[in-house]
Amino acid sequence: MNWLLSLDNVTLALLATLFTWGMTALGAAMVFFFKTINQHVLNAMLGFAAGVMIAASFWSLLAPAIAMAEETSSIPAWLVASIGFLSGAFFLWLADRLIPHMHIKDDQPEGLPSHLRRSVLLVLSITLHNIPEGLAVGVAFGAVVHGVGVEGILPAIAVALGIGIQNFPEGAAVSVPLRREGLSRFKSFMYGQASGVVEPIAGVIGAYLVLLVKPILPYALAFAAGAMIYVVVEELIPESQSSHKDTHFATIGCIVGFTIMMILDVALG
Fold it and tell me: How far apart are CA 47 and CA 249, in angstroms?
C-alpha cells in the first residue's frame, strides 16, 4: 500500500481506470466461450450494473460532495450538490442527443443521423455511459489529496472496485450480442473492450481538473453522480426491464449490485 501512497493522484486515477477498462475487456472475453446470453442473465447483469452505479453515486460521490462543500464553500452545500448533479445529468442528456448510438435491445439508432454500422452504434452506447464511470473514478482519486494516509485512498479504491465489478458484465453484454449478430469472436471481443477505452481518458481528465482547480471538487463529484444516475434511469433500468416479463431478475440484480457497492463504500470508506 505504501507504493500506492507514493504515486501522484493523476497516476493513481490512470491505474484505477486501466483496471476498470481491464474488467470490461475480461467481460468481453466471455464471447470466446459463449455465443448467446440467456435473457434473464442479461437482465440481471444490466440490473446489477444499475445497482452499483446508484450506490456509488450516493456513497462515493454525492455524500462526499456535500460534506466537502459544507467545509470549503461559502455557498450552501445543497446548492453546490444540486448544481453539480444537474450539470452532470444535462451533460449526458446532451451527449445522448448528439452522439449517434444504439441500445442493445433497440432497432432504431439515437442521436444525430449516422451511417455507422449497428455494431459501432452499440459500442458508442456503452462508451457514452462509461464516460461518467471513468470520471467518477478520476475525481475520487483527485479527492485523495484531501485525505491522509491509507484512510484517504480507500474510498477511491472502493469506487474503482465497484465500477470494475460492474464493468465485467457490461463487457459481456456488448460482445456476446455482437457475436450473435454474425461478427467473429475476435471482432466482438475488440468491440466489447473498446467501449471501456474512454474510462482512462475520462479518469485522467477528472483527476487533473480537480487538482488544477481544487474548489471545483465538490461540483465535480456531484457532476459525476448526476451523469451516472442519468445513465441508470435512461438506459440500464429500461433495458433490463424491456422484456416485460420475469423482470424480477433485473430487480434482484439491481439489489445485489447496490448491496455490494454499499458494502465496499462503507467498509473501505
Answer: 8
